[in-house]
């Protein structure tokens, strides 16, 4: 897909990083926020749907709490998120209201995207908000997150939301204007205009964000997110917030990640990118060939063992004799049932245990490439 596809996209997901909206010293920069809102409001006025994925809750909350520097403990980061999320959403609500646009807050945790039922509910919520003419503002629910919080690292979340919202394009905004073939801060580097696949960046070393600001996503996470979306049929532009309007208009700014995959079903996408495997099923060489080359279901005869504690219908990884993950799928049996099935042919099993261990329709192959 070309840049014209981005310009023509009816539904767009736009992600903005913390470094574009906040600073450690001053907190939220409402001027920058309003400039972005003006761009997104213009899209809405043109009849396009917009979903905004916004970082910045923690950076917004630091100054009101009198906290200087990056929080070193989870509790302080969560407290900053609690204060900052309220202020951030109030700023968005006020700015969009000047354009006659109502916003709705959608706070997600990793659990909301790794559990299939939660993922489905999140999708229904976003769909309904858009149908009602509301602009969803999505952020990770940092206030209750149980894993280490990273400032502004919402790039992967944005890629997942792009599929969840059935978006036609994704734009990742930060203080970095494009992907370069080197580090422009230390020497000559050229902007990469278009990426058609992982091989285009094979020789490029992607850096992480500087640790003295409020953003920690870095270019590596943006590229990972861009490949996730592009492989699912969604074109992506990575650029700076200052170039948001130009990128959304299809102008040659930033780096375009051309869509090079077919949009998968919600279940297939969830399995590949959002599910959290609860265990592993070990396969012999014959089963690997059947699954990978013939697209067959996994039968008990090809299983050599299992690891982990999982229940029927949980996501698991299918692993070959060499330790390489071949596929991911929804298992048909509890882990405690599996030892009695390992290596046995279907005809030797009790009737209740003759269904595949993982059915082909509940499985996705795992490719050994960036973003897969």
UniProtKB/TrEMBL annotation:
GO MF entry, a single one: glutamate 5-kinase activity
Family stated for the protein in its record: Belongs to the glutamate 5-kinase family.
PANTHER family, per the entry: GLUTAMATE 5-KINASE, ISOPENTENYL PHOSPHATE KINASE
Name of the featured protein: Glutamate 5-kinase
Gene3D superfamilies assigned: Acetylglutamate kinase-like, PUA domain
UniProt keyword terms in alphabetical order: Amino-acid biosynthesis, ATP-binding, Cytoplasm, Kinase, Nucleotide-binding, Proline biosynthesis, Transferase
Pathway: Amino-acid biosynthesis; L-proline biosynthesis; L-glutamate 5-semialdehyde from L-glutamate: step 1/2
EC id: 2.7.2.11
Annotated Pfam families: AA_kinase, PUA
Domain PUA: start-end pairs: 279-358
Taxonomic placement: Bacteria, Bacillati, Actinomycetota, Actinomycetes, Geodermatophilales
Enzyme kind, highest EC tier: transferase
Reaction(s) catalysed by this chain's protein: L-glutamate + ATP = L-glutamyl 5-phosphate + ADP
HAMAP family: ProB
UniProt xrefs under SUPFAM superfamilies: Carbamate kinase-like, PUA domain-like
Binding site for ATP: 15, 174-175, 216-222
One GO term describing the cellular component: cytosol
Binding residue positions for substrate: 55, 142, 154
Subcellular location: Cytoplasm
Organism: Klenkia soli
InterPro entries assigned: AceGlu_kinase-like_sf, Asp/Glu/Uridylate_kinase, G5K_ProB, Glu/AcGlu_kinase, Glu_5kinase, Glu_5kinase/COase_Synthase, Glutamate_5-kinase_CS, PUA
One of the protein's GO biological processes: L-proline biosynthetic process
């Amino acid at each position: 897909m070309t840049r014209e596809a981005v310009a023509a996209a009816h539904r767009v997901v736009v992600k903005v990083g913390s470094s574009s909206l906040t600073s450690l010293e001053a907190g939220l920069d409402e001027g920058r926020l309003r400039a972005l809102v003006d761009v997104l409001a213009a899209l809405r006025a043109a009849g396009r749907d917009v979903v905004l994925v916004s970082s910045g809750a923690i950076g917004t909350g630091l100054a009101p709490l009198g906290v200087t520097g990056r929080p070193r403990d989870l509790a302080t980061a969560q407290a900053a998120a609690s204060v900052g999320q309220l202020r951030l959403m109030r700023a968005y609500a006020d700015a969009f209201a000047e354009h006659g646009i109502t916003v709705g807050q959608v706070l997600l945790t990793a659990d909301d995207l790794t559990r299939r039922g939660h993922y489905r509910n999140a999708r229904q919520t976003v769909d309904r908000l858009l149908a009602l003419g509301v602009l969803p503002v999505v952020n990770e629910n940092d206030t209750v997150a149980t894993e280490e919080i990273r400032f502004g690292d919402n790039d992967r979340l944005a890629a997942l939301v792009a599929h969840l919202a059935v978006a036609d394009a994704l734009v990742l905004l930060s203080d970095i204007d494009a992907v370069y073939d080197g580090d422009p801060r230390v020497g000559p580097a050229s902007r990469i205009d278009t990426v058609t696949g992982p091989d285009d960046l094979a020789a490029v070393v992607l850096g992480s964000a500087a640790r003295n600001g409020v953003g920690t996503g870095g270019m590596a996470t943006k590229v990972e997110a861009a490949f996730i979306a592009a492989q699912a049929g969604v074109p992506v532009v990575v650029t700076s917030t200052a170039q948001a309007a130009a990128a959304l208009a299809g102008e040659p700014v930033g780096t375009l990640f051309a869509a090079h995959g077919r949009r998968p079903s919600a279940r297939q996408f969830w399995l590949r990118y959002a599910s959290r495997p609860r265990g592993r099923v070990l396969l012999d060489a014959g089963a690997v060939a059947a699954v990978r080359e013939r697209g067959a279901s996994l039968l008990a005869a090809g299983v050599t063992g299992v690891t982990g504690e999982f229940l029927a219908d949980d996501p698991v990884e299918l692993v070959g004799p060499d330790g390489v993950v071949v596929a991911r799928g929804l298992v048909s049996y509890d882990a405690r049932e599996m030892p009695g099935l390992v290596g046995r042919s279907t005809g030797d099993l009790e009737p209740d245990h003759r269904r595949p261990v993982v059915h082909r329709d509940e499985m996705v192959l795992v490719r050994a490439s960036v973003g897969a």
